[in-house]
Design brief:
single chain, alpha+beta, two-stranded antiparallel sheet, 3 helices, 41% helix, elongated
Length: 196
């Protein structure tokens, strides 16, 4: 059953109580009994620490007690303003939750909250692998560009060098050297033979 009085009490927290003593201390501090509500009897409007509906945060909230069925972790649905069975099952945890239990006893099934750390680690690992993949792709592209640049530079140098060699060391130049030695001295034609 939705309870409008629950929504203003909902807030994100870093951790939920881990045992009965911590749960009672937080419940006294939050003081759900002082919240004005007409949803249920005052002894049924109690402190909860559960996951949000997306399973991404821990939420402290004052809400009516709900019996959680199906070995699920409880969650608070902001839109419906209710505690409900969540996305995650707790049947295979080291301390499995029973088939039916009170939402206000979620602290007994800590692995429901540890899911966030596992999700965070999984997301961090996925982000790291995505970063490595994208970086390696970028390195392949940069490597390809560098190789292309080296090849193009080599072709240009070779092409220009070939033109320079062609200008100064062509067969025409060889003929010019021969003609230097073909000269007339004292009326005779002297022909020098190049050793080329």
């Amino acid at each position: 059953m939705p309870c409008n009085a629950s929504l203003p009490t909902a807030k994100s927290v870093e951790r939920c109580p881990r045992n009965d003593l911590e749960w009672k201390a937080r419940a006294a501090y939050v003081s759900c009994s002082s919240v004005e509500q007409s949803c249920v009897e005052s002894d049924m409007f109690v402190y909860h620490c559960v996951l949000n509906a997306e399973g991404t945060k821990r939420i402290e909230v004052c809400a009516p007690v709900k019996f959680i069925h199906g070995k699920k972790c409880p969650e608070f649905n902001n839109g419906g303003m209710i505690i409900q069975e969540g996305l995650f099952t707790c049947s295979n945890h080291s301390v499995p939750c029973p088939v039916v239990y009170k939402s206000s006893e979620a602290y007994k099934y800590q692995e429901c909250f540890d899911i966030l750390e596992k999700q965070h680690q999984k997301n961090s690992t996925e982000i790291m692998y995505r970063y490595i993949y994208e970086t390696s792709q970028l390195l392949y592209i940069i490597g390809g560009l560098v190789v292309s640049l080296v090849i193009c530079t080599g072709l240009n140098v070779y092409g220009i060098g070939g033109k320079i060699r062609g200008k100064f060391f062509s067969t025409d130049r060889k003929d010019d050297r021969k003609s230097k030695y073909n000269s007339k001295e004292n009326g005779r034609t002297l022909i020098a033979v190049d050793e080329i």
